[in-house]
Task: inverse folding
């Protein structure tokens, strides 16, 4: 017998999952990040989801098939010590690499400036967009101040969600 959702929408839950929810990767940052390097993400514990062919390794999220994807990134920063400068510029970026050109291309970027006179301060940067991504391409994240990233998966996350075949 059909579920309540199938009766209302006429679409089975399995069809909805296969079209809209998969593949999906969502993750939280791991600890011990190095400034200027790509961020490492937790891929096995907590509210982490890796479905539909996504693979994650050493900071690289591998795209499983060609299509249109919603890519998203939120990084929350907070003060840990007094700043030496009057303001601090925070930048979070998602880079895209394909086998055809094997170079980091900026796909998404979000930035803001915080006043170091505010004590304590906390700032969340969020960005997302729809992009045509090639199969076996990679997504990776860079932050201007990884030492200020809050280590809570509900405040810091990165992922991609399949939207449409290309």
Result:
């Amino acid at each position: 017998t059909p579920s309540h959702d199938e009766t209302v929408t006429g679409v089975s839950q399995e069809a909805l999952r296969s079209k809209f929810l998969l593949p999906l990767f969502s993750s939280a940052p791991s600890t011990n990040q190095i400034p200027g390097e790509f961020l490492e993400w937790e891929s096995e514990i907590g509210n982490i989801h890796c479905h539909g062919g996504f693979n994650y390794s050493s900071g690289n999220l591998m795209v499983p098939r060609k299509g249109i994807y919603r890519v998203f990134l939120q990084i929350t920063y907070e003060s840990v010590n007094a700043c030496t400068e009057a303001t601090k510029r925070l930048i979070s970026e998602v880079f895209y690499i394909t086998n055809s050109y094997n170079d980091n291309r900026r796909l998404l970027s979000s930035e803001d400036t915080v006043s170091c006179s505010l004590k304590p301060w906390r700032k969340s940067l969020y960005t997302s967009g729809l992009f045509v991504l090639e199969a076996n391409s990679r997504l990776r994240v860079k932050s201007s101040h990884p030492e200020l990233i809050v280590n809570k998966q509900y405040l810091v996350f990165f992922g991609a969600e399949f939207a449409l075949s290309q």
